[in-house]
Amino acid sequence: MPTLTRRAMICSAACGFAAPAALGQSSAFAAAAARARQMDQLHSLTIVQDGRTVIEDVRRGPSAATPVNVKSVSKSVVSALTGAAIDRGHLPGLGATLGDLAPGLIPPGADPRVTAITVENLLTLQAGLERTSGRNYGAWVNSGNWVAYALSREMVAEPGAVMLYSTGTTHVMGAVLTEVTGRSLLSLARDWLGDPLDIDVPSWARDPQGYYLGGNEMALSPRALARFGEMYRLGGRWQGRQVLPAAWVRDSFTARTRSRWSGLGYGLGWFLGEADGTAYALARGYGGQVVAVVPDRALTVVITSDPTRPARSEGYFGDLQALLERDIIPSAPRA
Q: So what's the architecture of 13-66+221-331 in CATH?
């Protein structure tokens, strides 16, 4: 499975986040932008090349500075917060188990193997529990205790054996972060990501016990998403500050499993693919919300889309993946 290489990049003044001239019409990405405009689900396309915004094209929806629902891109945010928690000593590492970290979250009657589920299992969606996404999502969010419901599902695989895409799994990770730090996921996101990146992190949905939903429904603007992606591209740094450990970024971009739907690898909250001989990492949300990080091309791409319409691998998301792999990545020179 591919691993994205780390490159030491230096961000240019203000990291190029001033409004781009003429929306990059003279850039190598103009043709890709024109093709993106033909997609009726797409709301905005942002391309940051070598620290400079070369495309910022908002076709529908609010401005590039307005937070929008990023759906399951939230899973990559929860992963980032987990890396920050490990760096700060709140978690001992990826091998720490639910039984050690937050035994009070485990409901009576849960499969005994639940206690051995690790942080790594949660972030890689390999908890082994029956999924709470897809057709099971409604029953889960209508339950009286989202954490207990997720952890009381049938164990359909051994922990660490297979990827089972499930928002409930990432929600459990978010609840663990709250338990070990004594702080809400919102507070952590604002402190550990919002402040150093200078981005707005609005409040979002909470479960009946008050835990902020981990893995869905967060809102970030396209410009905030671009800074989040650029921070990862730069090995966890932003404007001279180490926001996340470089080793965490490398681990996040190392595939540990694979999606049976898209065929993409999956690391710590990031899908992983390859195009034009270059590895890339992808945060992906329902409807076609995308943050793509391509370190070897000094490239970050953000796409926001209609969050109410599906984006399946054989449909709209497949179109977005083709846009990225065939049009955008090959247009960027190797860094």
A: 3-Layer(aba) Sandwich (3.40)
Q: With contact defined as beta carbons under 8 Å apart, do 191 and 209 qualify?
A: no
Q: What pLDDT digit, counting tens, does each position of 131-160 carry?
A: 999 999 999 999 999 999 999 999 999 999
Q: Give the DSSP H/E element, type plus range, for residue 55.
A: strand 52-58
Q: Which residues pair with 53 in a beta bridge?
A: 48
- Rounded CA-CA distance 95/91 in Å is 10
Per-position b or e across 96-116, b if 16+ CB within 10 A of its CB: bbbeebbeebbeeebbeebeb
Answer whether 48's CB lies under 8 Å from 275's CB.
Answer: no
Name the token pair of 73. 């891109």
From-to residues of CATH 3.40.710.10 in the chain: 13-66+221-331
Q: Which helix (H) or strand (E) holds 147?
A: helix 146-151
N residues, the chain: 335
DSSP bridge partners of 57:
45
Q: Which two tokens stand for residue 49?
A: 């090349």
| Two structure tokens written together for 12 | 């240019």
Residues in Cβ contact with 322 at an 8 Å cutoff, skipping those fewer than 6 apart: none
Q: Is 89 exposed, middle or buried (0-12, 13-18, 19+ CB in 10 A)?
A: exposed
Q: pLDDT by residue (tens digit) across 43-99? A: 999 999 999 999 999 999 999 999 999 999 999 999 999 999 999 999 999 999 999
Task: Indicate if the alpha-carbon torsion angle 197, 200, 205, 207 is positive or negative.
Answer: positive
Q: Alpha-carbon distance 63 to 186, whole Å? A: 23
Query: For residue 96, how many C-alpha atoms fall within 13 Å in the half-sphere facing its CB?
Result: 20
DSSP state of 256: -
**Identity of residue 40:** D
Tokens at 185, concatenated: 């996921």
